[in-house]
Amino acid sequence: MRVLGLIGTLPDATAPAGPPRALALLRLLADAGHEVQLVVGEPLGGDRRILADAAAAAIGGPVTAAAGTERVGPGTEALRWALPVRLAAEYVTPLARTARALAPSVDLVFSFDDPAHGAASAVSGDVPTLMDLVHIRGVTDDGDWARTSRARWTIQPHRSWERRVLGRGFGVIAPSTQTRARMDRLYYRRPVIVPTPVARPAVAGADTPTDDTFTVGWYGDTRDPGDREGLARLAAELWPLVGDGAARLLLADAARPAELAAAGALPGAEAIHPDGGIAELTARCTIAIRPLWRAGGDGAATLTLMAAGLPVVGTPQAFEGIDVHPGMEGLIADTPSRLAIALRKLAEDPASTRQIAGQGQQHVLRHHAPEAVTPILEGAIEKAITRFGDYRAGRVPTPIDPAGAKRQIEETLKHARAAGAHLR
């Protein structure tokens, strides 16, 4: 099968944590024998060429820029609130034009971010389409973006690509139950959950903790606003509750910004450059900390640390997309003070530290290893292709008419009442 991947902004395949979710999913398809290619909605000259070559190696197929990206902006985010203009722009961006040109020669279009979803929806009537709803824009910090019907009706028109593709019944996947719940409450449709694939890294032996010292490792990418905020709160609120002469903090940032030097000046803290990958960090740490405060992620960094054999202490947002049992595969706390208590708890109990680390690593191997994720992804693709055949045969109504939407809502409420469930 020939798979055309679309993405507005090229992810960094050189980060120590390994290929990002979009590239990892395409790699699964390449390893399964499919022919994959990725088209990016931004220029790939200069320094971006290095990232493009790394992405091509990661997915096992070519990575190219959409024709015309040097002259026309790559996405439609700037037109987000000018709805009629933005809807028209979905069909004329370089990414959409390239998708239309390549659609006759591919068997599936796979999109990974908002600009790519707009381009994919523009060709969804001509080729089976699969959308990966990761890092959705507009999610509130707690992840609850559809508290009221008014919020849903405000958001829906501006995310028209999912509505169009869901209305036709094609494939939409999500990295977590949390993202699926948001989409269900927004469109009354449940995407298929495809976990984020994570390869187990080669890890050197970690330092053995002593009775009077422990080492905490933070890994992130401060180009991401969530990681940037998490690092700032770690330095200002969390570490002062933990840091003393017996505690050390290692900070590893994929972006290597100058701002990391300020956090590295904390008592017991040291900023490092993880050129050797996550293995370099895990070889020097006994505990990993993930203080994220924004919802909507895929848990890739947390999964990588767990796969490397580190016990992870983090917020609920850090574990989004990872179906762990608190206290077994990781420790979850929702405030800086509780995170500090969890760190101290592990530091004082090396046996529990090793147990949580082992259980977390086994969880990743069972649920997020490539061999575990590939069948789920293949099933989502088969469903999208089947539904596309139904659409072309006229068995899928499109678009969703108001009467049909009202009927679906009434049926959902009817089933919920029959089951005794409470809906907001």
UniProtKB/TrEMBL annotation:
Q: State the EC number(s).
A: 2.4.-.-
Q: Name one GO molecular function term.
A: glycosyltransferase activity
A Pfam family of the record is Glyco_trans_4_4
**Source superkingdom:** Bacteria
Q: Which InterPro entries match?
A: Glyco_trans_4-like_N
**Gene3D superfamilies recorded:** Glycogen Phosphorylase B
Domain Glycosyltransferase subfamily 4-like N-terminal: start-end pairs: 21-197
> What is the uppermost EC class here?
transferase
Give UniProt keywords alphabetically.
Answer: Glycosyltransferase, Transferase
**Which protein is depicted?**
Glycosyltransferase
